[in-house]
Amino acid sequence: MVALIEKYRAFLPVSEKTPIVSLFEGNTPLLPAPRLSKLIGCEVFLKYEGANPTGSFKDRGMTMAVSKAAEEGARAVICASTGNTSASAAAYAARAGMKCVVLIPEGNVALGKLAQVCLTGASVVQINGNFDNCLDLVRYLSENYPIALVNSVNPYRIAGQTTGAFEVVDALGDSPDYQAMPVGNAGNITAYWAGYQTYKKAGLAKRLPTMLGFQAAGSAPIVENRIVEHPETVATAIRIGNPASWKQATAARDESGGLIDAVSDEQILEAWRLLSSQEGVFCEPASASGVAGALALAKKGFFKKNQRLVCILTGHGLKDPGTAMKAAPEVETHPADGEHLAKFLGLNQAL
Q: Exposed (0-12), middle (13-18) or buried (19+): which is 113, by Cβ within 10 Å?
């Protein structure tokens, strides 16, 4: 196995002096989605980032951010998070032997993400406010105290996340026609666009994709072109009212001839259930917003049959078990009787 930084060293801001802090992240599957392809009307692939070590795409940027922090002599890192960043920062800090401090918005972090953080021994502080308040605080602390900031405002995070685009091109042989993805703090759409541009300049891709980003309707500052003071959505990973990479994301949208639109919680949950029931892929709700957006565009005849669409699924479904259990039907209890179960399950009819 090769660490992600080593695999793409030629395209990343590292040197021989950079100590590589790695959990062998990346190399996530690009899955063909035959049923989604029929529904959307083009060839659809799912980039399943839930296969990263801590279960989300954040590991791509965190291996870079923590490695560079170690190179600069940092002994502690800090981040604001709605969940995935904190899980990743805590794991990579533990790997590097560093202290980790995590600020989370009160009541707005999924249980699966918080559980990961707590087991690393990281210091978790719950703030009476939203993600944007947390980000303001970690910026202040990192500017005034000896602790390294590892949110996506750190350019090394964005650099690491460009590797997702590299892997898509490596798998397909070129950039797709379209890429659809969730937009929260907007670092990921920024990074993927930069990655595709880097590969094209290097002659490893012939074209650039059209970037399609989707925010939750209750948390859509870029779509509404205003800061959302109190963002609300079931998709906790993108419940952000003032994205740190706002300008970069709109640049990616405009330069690629793409769009950033909003999808409702109902559309997100419908796409989320469809991914599990039709494609066998379990992602967290926020991850499905790109698929929800693509399905909405397909109804307008946006895609053509011979085109390729890659949907980025940013996190594993076990990141948010609470939402999954709420959506699941109640499990019934039956007697331990084979014939009774055969009748209940309709097995006689099936035969």
A: buried
DSSP state of 288: G
313: helix, coil or strand? strand
**pLDDT tens string 299-336:** 999 999 999 999 999 999 998 877 877 877 788 899 99
**What pTM was estimated for this model as a whole?**
0.92
Q: What is the DSSP string of 266-294?
A: HHHHHHHHHHHHHH---B-GGGGHHHHHH
Token pair 């940092």: residue: 74
Closest to 289 (Cα-Cα) out of 220, 213, 222:
213
Rounded Cα distance, 257 and 175, in Å: 15
Amino acid at 187: G
Cα torsion through 319, 322, 326, 330, rounded to 10: 100
Beta bridge partners, 48, equal: 313
- State pLDDT tens for residues 33-61: 999 999 999 999 999 999 999 999 999 99
> Using an 8 Å Cβ cutoff, are 294 and 246 in contact?
no
Local structure of 57: helix, strand or coil? coil
The whole-number pLDDT of residue 322 equals: 78
End-to-end CA distance of the chain: give it in Å, rounded: 47
In whole angstroms, how large is the CA radius of gyration of the chain? Answer: 21
- Identify whether the C-beta of residue 190 lies closer than 8 Å to the C-beta of residue 183: no
- Residue 252 · residue 328 · CB < 8 Å: no
Phi, psi of 83 (to 5 degrees): 145, -60
Q: What is the DSSP string of 299-324?
A: TTT-S-TT-EEEEEE-BBGGG-HHHH
Query: Dihedral sign, CA of 228, 232, 235, 239?
Result: positive
